[in-house]
Task: inverse folding
């Protein structure tokens, strides 16, 4: 559902939205909005705003609070650094004058995480609840606006955004069957979106999308809009870089026959096992304990958004245009 018209003219055409679409938006972490940031790991968000090169302790989730009978759908109230020495830095003067979070993996594994354990300290929507949303790999939209800063010579893949949940459906699968997801920038600048299913000490082949064409790389030197857009139909899932995608690919779902993948991540395990930890991470890969692991991101991140259902093509294009205007990015038609 589109937002209200902004009345702004861009390229001779009015922008259709003045903010990202809000329907089914369960995560929106915006480092261009200093009012959503704080340097401390705990406490309130009131007080002095961050300045250039200040560390970021936490960032609020700007997604709307949607209360269901089970709780809030949002993926946590905010996201935070694990320790003071793992805080990314706040910088001003980025793309089109916008501020950003700078992640530096050279000396520490910097990253931000929200966990389903201990809401007061880890930002969950409630005690032992990260959020009540169910994230289905074949019906999801994710946007990252950012710029890698390394020169692809370190030999390491980097994770810009991740989540970790559990599959708990009445299908005979074990209750501790985990679902992990990572948006990875490969060492050759390819972009991979990978869902991985693990259960009872075993793993299965991942569900994945791969953006391998050079014009669709997540390259250093300029800010890019990375968009993961999936669909249940074969060949209709895409990774867009500045609105350009590789050939459509297939995401497998629980009804896909021999290729079935139960990659439906329940982010609220409290009703069946509250000892399990669900989490989301920015700037690195989260594990079963909600910890940021290796393969952390090196670069600038401006915004991250995740929708629990795929955007319509009209909304996807409108949001892409909105980001292109905000960050002065030339889209690939």
Result:
């Amino acid at each position: 559902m589109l937002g209200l018209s902004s009345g702004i003219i861009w390229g001779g055409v009015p922008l259709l939205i003045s903010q990202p679409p809000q329907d089914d938006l369960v995560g929106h972490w915006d480092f261009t909005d200093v009012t959503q940031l704080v340097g401390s790991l705990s406490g309130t968000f009131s007080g002095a705003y961050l300045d250039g090169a200040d560390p970021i302790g936490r960032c609020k989730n700007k997604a709307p609070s949607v209360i269901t009978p089970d709780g809030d759908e949002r993926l946590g109230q905010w996201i935070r650094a694990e320790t003071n020495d793992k805080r990314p830095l706040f910088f001003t003067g980025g793309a089109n004058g916008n501020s950003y979070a700078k992640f530096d993996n050279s000396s520490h594994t910097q990253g931000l995480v929200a966990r389903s354990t201990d809401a007061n300290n880890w930002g969950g929507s409630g005690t032992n609840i990260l959020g009540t949303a169910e994230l289905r790999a074949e019906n999801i939209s994710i946007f990252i606006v950012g710029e890698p800063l390394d020169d692809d010579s370190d030999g390491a893949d980097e994770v810009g955004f991740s989540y970790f949940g559990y599959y708990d459906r009445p299908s005979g699968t074990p209750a501790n069957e985990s679902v992990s997801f990572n948006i990875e920038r490969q060492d050759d600048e390819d972009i991979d979106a990978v869902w991985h299913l693990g259960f009872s000490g075993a793993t299965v082949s991942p569900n994945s999308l791969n953006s391998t064409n050079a014009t669709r790389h997540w390259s250093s030197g300029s800010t890019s809009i990375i968009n993961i857009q999936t669909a249940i139909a074969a060949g209709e899932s895409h990774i867009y870089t500045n609105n350009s995608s590789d050939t459509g690919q297939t995401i497998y779902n629980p009804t896909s026959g021999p290729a079935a993948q139960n990659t439906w991540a329940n982010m609220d395990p409290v009703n069946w096992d509250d000892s399990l930890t669900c989490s989301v991470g920015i700037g690195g890969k989260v594990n079963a304990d909600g910890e940021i692991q290796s393969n952390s991101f090196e670069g600038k991140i401006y915004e991250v958004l995740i929708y629990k259902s795929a955007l319509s093509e009209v909304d996807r294009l409108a949001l892409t245009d909105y980001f292109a205007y905000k960050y002065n990015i030339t889209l690939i038609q």
Notes: Helices lie at 119-122, 313-327.
